[in-house]
What we know:
Elements: H1 2-24, H2 30-51, H3 56-81, H4 97-110, H5 117-120, H6 125-138, H7 142-167, H8 173-186, H9 188-192, H10 200-219, H11 223-243, H12 246-258, H13 264-287, H14 294-310, H15 314-323, H16 331-336, H17 338-347, H18 364-367, H19 371-387, H20 393-413, H21 425-439, H22 443-473
Amino acid sequence: MNEKRAFIFAQLGVMCALxxxxxxxxxxxxxxxxxxxxxxxxxxxxxxxxxxSAGRDIGLWTxxxxxALLSLGxxxxxxxxxxxxxxxxxxxxxxxxxxxxxxxxxxxxxxGGSPDSSITVESRFGYGRFLALAALVVGRDVAxxxxxNVLFVLLTIVLAGxxxxxxxxxxxxxxxxxxxxxxxxxxxxxxxxxxILIKDAxxxxxxxxxxxxxxxxxxxxxxxVSLLSACAFLSAAFLAAxxxxxxxxxxxxxxxxxxxxxxxxxxxxxxxxxxxxxxIYCYVVLYTNTTFSPEVALSQRDDMALQTAEGYSDRMxxxxxxxxxxxxxxxxxxxxxxxxxxxVQFLTPFPWxxxxxxxxxxxxxxxxxxxxxYAVGGLAVFYFLFGMRRSxxxxxxxxxxxxxxxxxxxFIYGGxxxxxxxxxxxxxxxAAAMTWLSWRRDRKFKIYAVVYVSLLAAALLVCHHxxxxxxxxxxxxAI
Length: 479
C-alpha cells in the first residue's frame, strides 16, 4: 500500500513539475499541453497494464521517469522553437532540416495545397502527411505534435519489455521484461528522439509493434490474440508505408525470421502478409515520391557525395579524411569497409560536443550521453560472442534479426546516420538483458568487460584525435 501511495504522489509531483516548467519556459499553450501530456501518460499506463510482463513497480517507475524526462525536454524544446526565436507554437522556427521540411509539407496539406517538388525530393513527404493526420486529432501546433512522439517512445519502451518476455527463458520473463525496459529507456539518443519533430520515434514504435505482434501471433493459438496481433501488424505496416517505406522490407525480414513456418496457420499468415506488404511497397515506389524512387535516390546520393567532398560538415570532413567519400563506393568496396562502418555507427553520437547540435533543440544535449548505450551495446556483443548457443531459440532469432538490420544500415550509409539504427533496439536490447541476468557473474564476462572497456576507450581516443585534427585543418574548433 505504501508503494502504491508513493507512486501516486510521484505522478502528482511530476504533473506539478510539468505545470511549473510550462510557466517558467513559456512557448507551449500551458493548459492544452498539460492535458495532452496527461493523456499520453494515461494511454501509456493502460498499454503497460494491458501487455507488459514486467514487475509492476520497476516497470511503472521506469515508465514514469521516461515520461518526466521526455515531457521536460518537450517543454524546453518548444520554448526554444518559439519565444527564444521570436516565433509561435503554430509557426515555430525549426532549424533541423528534416523537421522544417516535414512541417512545411504538413502546412501545405492542411492548407489544401501541394508541397513544392524541392520539398518532396527531400524524402520527408511521408512524415509530413503523418503530421497532417496527427494535427487533425491533437491540433496544429508543435507542442501538440511532439506529444505524439512522446507517446511513441513510451509505447516502444512498453513493447520492448513485452518482446523480451516473449523470448525469455522459462522463469525469467518478468526480470527480462523489467531489465529490457530499463535498458532501452537509458539509451539517451533513443529517448531524445521523442522530443524533436522527426520520424525516428514513429519508426521505433513501428518496429516494436510489428515484432511484438509477430511473436504474439506465433506464441498464442487463441483466435482473439491472433486477430489482435494481425491487426497490430497491419497497423504497423500502414504507418511504415506512410512514414518510411523501407521499414516494410525489414518487417518482411522479421516475418521470415520469427514466424512459425512449420504450421499451416503460420505459413498462410506469413505468405498473406508478404503479399500484402509487397503490394504496399510497389504502390509506394510507383505512385508516390519517396526515398525509394530511383531518381530521388540518385539525386540524394550525388548531393550527399558533393557535400561530403566539399567538407560542409566537420564530422564528414573527418570521416572522408580517413575513409574517403563513402557514397561513391561500389558494393564490394563498402563490404570491405563494413567493420569501420559498424564501429562509427556504434560510437556516434560521441560523448562530447554536447552543445554541437543544440540549435536543433535543447534535448540534443542529452543525446550525447552515450555511456548507457555503450554499456548496453557491450552486453549485446557479449551475447553474440559467447551467449547465443545457451539462449532460447526465439531470442537467438530475434537477436540475429537485429544484427542483420544493423549491418544492412551500416552497409548502406557507412555508419554516418546512426539514428537509423534506433528502430532495431527492441530486437537487440533483450540480448543485452539476457547477458546481464545470466552471465554477469561469470569469470568470462568479467574478462570480456575489461577488454571491452579498454578497446572502447582506445577507439574513442582515436576518434577524438581524428575529429580534433580535422577541425583544426578546416579552421574550426567544434568537434
